[in-house]
């Protein structure tokens, strides 16, 4: 990275570890673009569901992935909207059943190929905070800043419940949430293609006992350090 270039910040980790909240806040602090790659797999899953495509059918799912328009746009409340073929699906992609379908559809190598190509294009100029499962290990293995967020399953289920409630969506029982998060972790971490993992050189942050602001501050300091190193060297 040259002193003029702005880093790629890769934030990975399991569901509910705080990636979205932290990545969004870091991007705002730095004036970087925020890319939620989970929303992209969710849009593909929703596309399959709406078109009656069997999630396990890799060929049909990869055709959806290749043909679907996925864009992000600023929301009035300062957040980000996910558009599928130009239509706002931000709420629909957060439904509980879509979480499970997104995890299953993301295990197809040909679906991943399509998404990874789009993600590399979005991040190629730097100045981006990208969150997901395989950003630091696969999409941008040379990212200047790699952060892996972790949290206990109890805390993650609590956060998921709060998130669903705030969006006005159905909230499953705590047991069901913990079970589905554990199932998703297992599937995301053991799939054959680009499984969820921390890079060897990632900074690992356990977020259970930290405030969002503390985590955001840690990441922002890391980015500034890398920029400082680039201008020194
Ligand atoms: O972060 P999320 O819960 O919105 O992601 C939904 C699913 O998408 C997740 O269970 C696994 C998949 N995913 C992935 O395989 N790779 C990514 N970079 C991001 C998400």
Walkthrough of the structure:
The chain is of the alpha/beta class and 233 residues long. It has one domain: Rossmann fold. The protein has nine helices and eight strands. It has helices at residues 19-30, 37-50, 58-67, 96-105, 109-123, 135-139, 153-166, 174-190, 212-232, and strands at residues 8-12, 33-36, 70-74, 80-84, 87-88, 128-132, 145-150, 203-206. The strands form two sheets. It has a five-stranded parallel sheet with strand order 2-6-1-7-8, sandwiched between helices. Strands 3-4-5 form a three-stranded antiparallel sheet. α7 packs across α8. The mean pLDDT is 95. Bound molecules: 2'-deoxycytidine-5'-monophosphate. 2'-deoxycytidine-5'-monophosphate binds next to α2, α4 and α8.
Strand portion, in percent? 15-25%
Question: Would you tell me which CATH topology applies?
Answer: Rossmann fold
From the N-terminal CA to the C-terminal CA, the straight-line distance is 10 Å
Question: Runs with pLDDT <50, length 5+?
Answer: none
Counting structural domains, the number is 1
| Shape estimate | globular
Structural classification? alpha/beta
Oligomer: single chain
Bound molecules: 2'-deoxycytidine-5'-monophosphate
Provide a short characterization of the protein structure.
The protein is 51% helix and 15% strand.
